[in-house]
């Protein structure tokens, strides 16, 4: 309280933000925050969040800062004990990602808000967010930093092992970059007049008119409600890469998942065998090192960060393995992922008999033009 009887907070000394001040006022007085207050706070944060830069401060996107904050909190919580590490990577991090995903999906642009969560409703356009791609990028960068600053200094990993790990990492990053770089519609749009296109599309049957794009597209092209574009032989929209997977980049996507899974699994193996006491395991004609006991896993910050990064890699490897299994099942069955999901929702529409032609489907997938 000042001399004039006006109330203020210490927050005003750092930022003259009325929306944030009002939110703190309602929280401290045990009053609920309305939807308008939350929107004002988010807009204020996105405008005030800046970093010093040459020529003036630059805005930091809220989704990027949220991804960085999510990774920092997760790695920090996983550095205390095995119990907190398991709870962090099994409960806390998946719950955070699910909550963010629900908040993003609630921004569906539709006149009727009750259509959120409904399936098959025309006119719904899913919002596009860079949070998922930023989270994946920041997570991979953080794991590499932990690996080279905390695991490598133990001087237990040979140059040969590090070279294999870097080969898988570079291959995966290159393939996933090509997925985004080569993403396109996969066909050349027809340049015809409005009067001509409807007649010729109906007569030929090879092309049709998309009412959402308002352009002519091939019969096998489908519309993506997130990209707001039609793609030829569209597989699905990958939110983690913020791009659509179709006939142009689907093979790069599968190769990137395979190399990424190998890199994550091998990196986790190197980290755990470095921090923990390894045990020799005889497998056929070779000997493998597997982590056996970890009594000093949280004895120092270096070892605790290594263990936390390894557990983070296990979680990412699980996500990648699930996505890879989905893609391989679709390749063997000769269908796209969106078609596979649609068939799974309908009773008696998908059978294991579709795997009988698995070799032919794989040949068509990898060797088509």
TrEMBL record:
One molecular function GO term is: protein-cysteine S-palmitoyltransferase activity
Places the protein is found = Membrane
Instruction: Provide the transmembrane region boundaries.
Output: 66-97, 131-150, 162-179, 252-272, 312-335
Q: Which InterPro entries match?
A: Palmitoyltrfase_DHHC, PFA4/ZDH16/20/ERF2-like
Documented EC number(s): 2.3.1.225
A single GO cellular-component term on record: membrane
What reaction does this enzyme carry out catalytically? Answer: L-cysteinyl-[protein] + hexadecanoyl-CoA = S-hexadecanoyl-L-cysteinyl-[protein] + CoA
The main location is membrane
Membrane disposition? Multi-pass membrane protein
Keyword terms of this UniProt record: Acyltransferase, Membrane, Transferase, Transmembrane, Transmembrane helix
State if Transferase is listed as a keyword: yes
Q: Kind of enzyme, top EC level?
A: transferase
Pfam families listed in its UniProt record: DHHC
Residue ranges occupied by any Palmitoyltransferase DHHC domain in the UniProt entry: 206-340
Q: Which comment does the entry carry about domains?
A: The DHHC domain is required for palmitoyltransferase activity.
Q: Which PANTHER family match?
A: PALMITOYLTRANSFERASE ZDHHC16 (PTHR12246)
The UniProt similarity line reads:
Belongs to the DHHC palmitoyltransferase family.
Q: What is this protein called?
A: Palmitoyltransferase
């Amino acid at each position: 309280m000042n001399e004039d009887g006006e109330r203020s907070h210490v927050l005003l000394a750092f930022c003259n933000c009325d929306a944030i001040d009002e939110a703190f006022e309602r929280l401290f007085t045990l009053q609920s925050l309305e939807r308008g207050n939350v929107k004002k706070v988010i807009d204020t944060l996105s405008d005030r969040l800046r970093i010093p830069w040459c020529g003036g401060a630059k805005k930091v996107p809220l989704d990027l800062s949220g991804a960085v904050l999510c990774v920092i909190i997760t790695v920090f919580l996983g550095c205390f004990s095995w119990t907190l590490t398991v709870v962090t990577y099994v409960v806390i991090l998946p719950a955070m990602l699910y909550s963010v995903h629900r908040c993003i999906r609630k921004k569906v642009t539709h006149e009727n808000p009750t259509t959120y969560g409904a399936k098959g409703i025309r006119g719904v356009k899913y919002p596009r967010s860079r949070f998922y791609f930023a989270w994946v990028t920041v997570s991979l960068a953080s794991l590499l930093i932990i690996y080279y600053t905390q695991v490598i200094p133990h001087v237990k990993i040979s140059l040969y092992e590090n070279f294999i790990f870097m080969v898988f990492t570079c291959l995966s990053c290159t393939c996933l970059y090509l997925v985004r770089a080569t993403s396109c519609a996969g066909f050349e749009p027809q340049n015809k007049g409005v009067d001509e296109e409807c007649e010729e599309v109906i007569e030929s049957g090879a092309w049709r008119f998309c009412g959402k794009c308002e352009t002519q597209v091939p019969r096998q092209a489908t519309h993506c409600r997130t990209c707001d574009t039609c793609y030829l032989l569209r597989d699905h929209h990958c939110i983690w890469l913020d791009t659509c997977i179709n006939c142009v980049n689907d093979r790069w996507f599968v190769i990137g998942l395979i190399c990424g899974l190998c890199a994550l699994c091998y990196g986790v193996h190197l980290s755990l065998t470095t921090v923990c006491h390894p045990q020799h395991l005889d497998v056929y004609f070779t000997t493998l090192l597997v982590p056996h006991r970890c009594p000093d896993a949280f004895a120092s910050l270096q070892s605790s960060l290594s263990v936390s990064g390894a557990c983070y890699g296990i979680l990412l490897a699980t996500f990648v393995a699930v996505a890879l299994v989905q893609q391989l099942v679709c390749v063997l069955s000769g269908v796209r992922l969106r078609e596979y999901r649609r068939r799974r929702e309908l009773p008696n529409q998908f059978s294991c008999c579709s795997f009988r032609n698995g070799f032919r489907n794989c040949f068509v997938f990898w060797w088509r033009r």
